[in-house]
Amino acid sequence: MRVIAALALLLTVVAAPMVHAEPFGPQAFRDVWERTDYPVQVGLAQHSWIWGPEAFTPALREYFIENGRPGTRQVQYIDKGRMEINNPDADQSVPWYVTSGLLGRELIDGQVQIGYDAFVPLAPANIAVVGDPDNQFPTYASLARLYETPAGDQVGDQISRVFLPEGAGEFAQYADDPAAQIVRIERGFGIPRAFWNFMNQGGTIYRNGQFQQADQLFDWLYVTGYPITDAHWTRVRIGGVERDVLFQAFERRVLSYTPANPGQFQVEMGNIGRHYYAWRYEQAIPAGRQAIITLPSAGANVNSPLMVQGFERGQAFEAGILVRLRNQAGDVLAEQPTTVQRPDINYNGPFSATLNFAQPARPTSGMVEVVVSSPRDGSQTVIASQPVTIGGNEGQQPGQAPVDQVRQDLANRLGVAPGAVTIQSVEPVEWANAALECPAPDEAYATVVTPGYRIIAVAQGAEYIYHTDTGNQIRLCENGRPVPPPQADDGAPIAVPAANAQVTLPLHIQANLGEPGRQVTAELALANNIVFSDTLQVLAGPDGNGLVIGSLDWRNEGPPPNYESQPATLTIRGPEGNNLAARQVRILDPDSAETTSVDLYWLIGEDFASEQRVVPATQEIGATALEELLWGPAPRNQAGFGTAIPTPEEVLNYPGREDDWGPRVRLLGLTIENGVATANFSQELRAYGGGSTRVQHIRDQITRTLQQFPTVNEVQIAIEGQTEGVLQP
Predict the structure, then answer these.
(1) CA gyration radius, the chain
(2) What is the domain extent for residue 458?
(3) What is the DSSP string of 9-61?
């Protein structure tokens, strides 16, 4: 009878999941929650909460800029995270239809994300990361000294270090704890066994109205994201009792391991959803104030144009406010109406406005103000103000800084699109001579004051300093000397890599040289005398001449040697050892902030496997991942990776190739709109030769590689801009 009663109870539970204090908005949110957390709620799971027992907010519409267009996305907050739907029209069967917010990054670096590349500053969260809410340490703000700074942990290392307010320490008692041993490295950060096992565990899930057994409860990248700090021990109060806790921050979550807890709750997700909500909506604006200005900071020197950002409590009539700048005399130099982007009335929301104004001759005190108008009589009330110093224009030279010329010059040098070059700063300067204080050796120049600019441009994660005049003279300056533009090498130009490009391993090479059917040697010599070399096959190019297309990687057994970012020389030699071409590049330390990593998906037989590859840091990360995929697996990879995407050999020998075909498949563009990624490839992709299996493999490789990114829910493949009828069996 007890068994029958238990079964009856279970059937009742299955038929009617719990009604939450705040019901989930879209059914898709509930489906995600039920998969992992409904079994926890009814006592059938052997793990702690993944999302939490309930949603504590209604579904909200948060402001979000996508592809340059303002809009909103639907979100809902649960104890352990935030669920998001970026594109409600996407395929709901795609796992990334509902995404998990990157709350960890925002809480630590103090930047509220309002678009894929748009942020409003807010002070890092002074909220306890683990343990009781009244713990004073560690907080998200205190994690700034650990954030994106790997300690260099290796697989097999034991974590006994302690994170303390006054610095670091050791908990020697955990030096042999298997749970604290590093078993995985992701983006330079070591992940302890306790966390990695939790992130990859199987167990009972609830799906399609029934309980099932799954080999993996959840995709760890989807739920936690990549680690953004190393794991550390700390000592905090939990339920009022001091406990030792191992914790680690990830992009989307915080994980903690408490040895004193019962087994099911030794590893837990932190309450990052509640923490973020409190930071953004409850604590952002001090009590008694209606708004704050977070940019510019108090006392900052400001010039035109001036960006003003901040948060308003949600009480402004129809969310309308006015941002203005006054000088010391009280004169209004500029004002701009704008809208507070809040989910609903009485919710905090960010605002942003750009003020253009005529700068005074000399620096003067000023005040940035946020103003609301009464809907009854139009009277104005200042709800936030910030003192600033308004920069003067006396002594500044007339003329427009040659920003476009700098952007184009650097793009030409690096072999990238001008849009990939960001102008970081433009500073008016009076150079001491006509050579702009950057003379070439033996250059004759007049020692006359020359008005101009110092322009700092950023591309591929590196800074480049240009000296310019007020006309068209620009000089890329390094150590007081101009950097000459790249020149073709020995009459045998190397198309890839571009001269002075930032590169990582494997290094991709395309060059018109050599004799078809023979081999050449590619050698990358670093400034510190480390040398990478390998042989590459010379193909017959479209014109019948020699063509080298391949990749150079560390080919010896064991890990490659450690090296810092530094200049390097790529040399290609013929079979007799003669130099055919050379090119200067800069190789990046794979563990530095100048790099990032992407996951590429390869074939092993009929199955797929992922490979993590280090690439130069870039905002165009999706396109970079696809371009790496098109170059194929690294040479001599021991995992036996293969690709279904046509190789250069297949493209060059394809019977149906046209006269205007190139030697390899290229990415022509990648757009992401409303969660749909459209990858546009060159016509050489048609060299796959047919076959339903190969077509599906090509689609799967591209789709899986793009869907690692939370902004991509669905993938559409185009060839030369056409999406209909492509990749037919």
Answers:
(1) 29
(2) 403-481
(3) HHHHHHHSPPPPSS--SSHHHHHHHHHHHHHHHTT--SS--SS-SSB-S--EE
Domain count, the chain: 5
Same domain, 46 and 184: yes
Say how far apart CA 476 and CA 483 lie, in whole Å. 6
The dihedrals phi and psi of 320, each to the nearest 5 degrees, come to -95, 130
Q: Does residue 499 share a domain with residue 432?
A: no
Can you give the pTM of this predicted structure? 0.57
Asked, for residue 613, whether it belongs to a domain, the answer is no
Give every CB contact of residue 491 below 8 A, 6+ residues apart in sequence.
none
Q: What is the pLDDT of residue 393?
A: 63
CATH of the domain at 523: 2.60.40.10
CB of 231 within 8 A of CB of 159? yes
Tens digits of per-residue pLDDT, 558-593?
678 888 888 888 889 888 877 788 888 889 999 888
Task: Look at residue 94 in the predicted model and tell me its pLDDT.
Answer: 80
Which is more confidently placed, 247 or 527?
Answer: 247
Chosen domain end from 256, 280, 304? 280
For residue 434, what pLDDT is reported?
Answer: 82
pLDDT given for residue 128 in this prediction: 96
Instruction: Name every residue whose Cβ is closer than 8 Å to that of residue 280 and which is 6 or more positions away in sequence.
Output: 112, 122, 348
**Distance from C-alpha of 292 to C-alpha of 393, rounded to nearest angstrom:** 29
Burial class (CB in 10 A: 0-12, 13-18, 19+), 315: middle
Q: Are 248 and 231 in contact (CB under 8 A)?
A: yes
- Judge if 305 and 431 occupy the same domain: no
pLDDT at 10 over 50: no
Within-domain flag for 143 = yes
